[in-house]
C-alpha cells in the first residue's frame, strides 16, 4: 500500500498543521481493515488558528477582481483534472470505492464544480431597480467565513461542491471532513494554494463531530453547509439558528424509483443498479424503494437478478472491481442488521444478504422482493447495497406511496408515456427527479431535498443564493419630503 500519511492532520493558512494533543483519528482502508494513516483531531487551538486565518483570507479574497477569483477556481479545476489518477487512487484508499468509479466521479466532479463556478464568478452582480427618478441598486455580498461539514461517501466531491460556490461569491471556507475519510480534502487544500488562492481561503480542519460543533456556534462563522444524516442535520441546524447563521442541509433519503408497465426494462434495470449499488449503496439520493408495476415485476426482477449476479466484488484498486467494501465495520454491521430486519419482517431475500469471507468490510449486493410499505427496510435509510422491490397497480396509488415518507431528496420514474412522466413528476415530493434515468447530478442542475432531506440547494446558480446576501441601496435624486 502506497504511503498516504499526510504531513499534518490539518491544512491551515497555506500549510500543514499538527497538534498531537488531539484525539487520534485512524484512517482505515476498508478493503483490508489496515490503518493507512493516523491523524489527530483538531484541538481548540487548531480551530482558533483555522477561523482566524479564514477571516483574514476572506477579506483579501473579496477585494480581488471577480475575474481574478474565477481564474484561481479554474486553475484548481485544471490541477484536479491533471492529477485525476493520483487523486482517484487516494479517494479509493480513503473511502474503499472502486477505482473505476473514483476515476470518473470524484476529482472530475469536483473539477466540474470549480469550472462552473470559476466561469460564473465574474457574472455575479446586483441589479438596478428604477423607481421613476429615484432608484435602488443591489450589491451581492459574500457572507464571510463559511463552514463546510462533509460526509464520508464523497470526500472530494462534497468539499468541491461546497467550496466552489462559496469562494465564487467571495467567501472563505473552513472544511471539516468526515472523521472516517480525512485524507482527500487535505489534497484539495494543497491544490488551492498551488493554484494561487490566498493562504487561509480554504482551510481543512480534521476532527470528530465536536470539532465541527464548536465552529457551528462560533460568531466568526456566517454560514454552515452540512452533508450528513438527518439526526446530525437537526443538531447542526438548531445550533446554527442560535446565531441566525445561514444553512444548507444535504441530508438523507429513501427515494422512490418507479417503473411503469411500459418502461424499457433494460434501462430501468440499469437505473436500479446504479441507484442502489454504485458506491456500494452509500449515496444519499439512492432509489432504494423500487416500485415496479405488477404486470412486469417478474420480468424486471429476473433481469435485475441476472445482471446483479455478474457484479465483480473485490479490491477497490483493481480496475475490474465494480463493488468495493462498506466504509467502516460499523456501517457494515448496521447494514447487516437491516438485512436481518428485512428477513424478520417477511421480505423475500432474492440475492446477497451476507458478508463475504475474508478481510475488509464487504457486503454482497442485496435484493429483497415482496417488500411492503410499512417494513423498516422500506422506511429507513440503510446506506448500503440493499434494494427493495415493491409492486403497485395504479399511477395514483404509486404516487401516494412514493410520497409516504419523511424524506424527499430524489425520485425517478421509467415510462415511455411522456404525459404521464410529467404528470407524475409534478406530484412527487422530491428535490430532484429523473425521467428515464437515475442519480445523475450535473453541476448545472440544482440539487437538494424537501421535507426531512434538507434545506437549500447545492450546484447551479441556485447555490449562489445560499452563499451570498443582497444589500439594497436606495438612491434619491430629488429633495427629501418631510411632514414638518
Ligand atoms: O454521518 P453524520 P455519519 C447517514 C447514513 C449513515 C449515517 C451515519 O445512514 O449510516 O448517516 O453516518 C459531523 N455538529 N448518512 O456518522 O453523523 C461528522 O463529524 C457538527 C447519510 O458519517 O451525519 C461528519 O463530518 N457536525 C448521508 C458529518 O457531520 C457534526 C451521508 C456527518 O456525520 C456533529 C453520510 C455535530 N453535532 C451519512 N455530529 C447522506 N444521506 O448523504 C457529527 N458531525
Model description:
With 484 residues, the chain is an alpha/beta fold. The chain contains 16 helices and 20 strands. The protein has helices at 44-62, 66-82, 84-95, 99-105, 107-120, 155-168, 184-194, 209-216, 230-242, 265-277, 297-308, 329-345, 376-379, 395-403, 418-427, 462-466, and strands at residues 10-12, 15-17, 24-28, 35-40, 128-130, 135-142, 145-149, 172-176, 202-204, 221-227, 246-250, 256-259, 289-293, 348-351, 366-369, 386-392, 410-414, 432-435, 454-455, 468-475. The chain has a seven-stranded mixed beta sheet with strand order 14-15-16-13-12-17-18, sandwiched between helices. Helix 2 crosses helix 7 and helix 5 (107-120) runs parallel beside helix 6. The longest helix is centred in the N-terminal third of the chain and has 19 residues, at 44-62. The radius of gyration is 24 Å and the shape is globular. The chain starts with 9 loop residues before the first strand and ends in a 9-residue tail after the last strand. Ligand TXE is lined by residues 149-153, 176, 178-179, 208-209, 212-213, 216, 227-229, 232, 235-236, 251-252, 284, 331, 334, 381, 383.
Draw up the topology in text.
Elements: E1 10-12, E2 15-17, E3 24-28, E4 35-40, H1 44-62, H2 66-82, H3 84-95, H4 99-105, H5 107-120, E5 128-130, E6 135-142, E7 145-149, H6 155-168, E8 172-176, H7 184-194, E9 202-204, H8 209-216, E10 221-227, H9 230-242, E11 246-250, E12 256-259, H10 265-277, E13 289-293, H11 297-308, H12 329-345, E14 348-351, E15 366-369, H13 376-379, E16 386-392, H14 395-403, E17 410-414, H15 418-427, E18 432-435, E19 454-455, H16 462-466, E20 468-475
Parallel strand pairs: 7-8, 7-10, 8-9, 10-11, 12-13, 12-17, 13-16, 15-16, 17-18
Antiparallel strand pairs: 1-2, 3-4, 5-6, 6-20, 11-19, 14-15
Helix pairs in contact: 2-5, 2-7, 3-4, 4-5, 5-6, 10-11
Ligand TXE binds at residues 149-153, 176, 178-179, 208-209, 212-213, 216, 227-229, 232, 235-236, 251-252, 284, 331, 334, 381, 383.
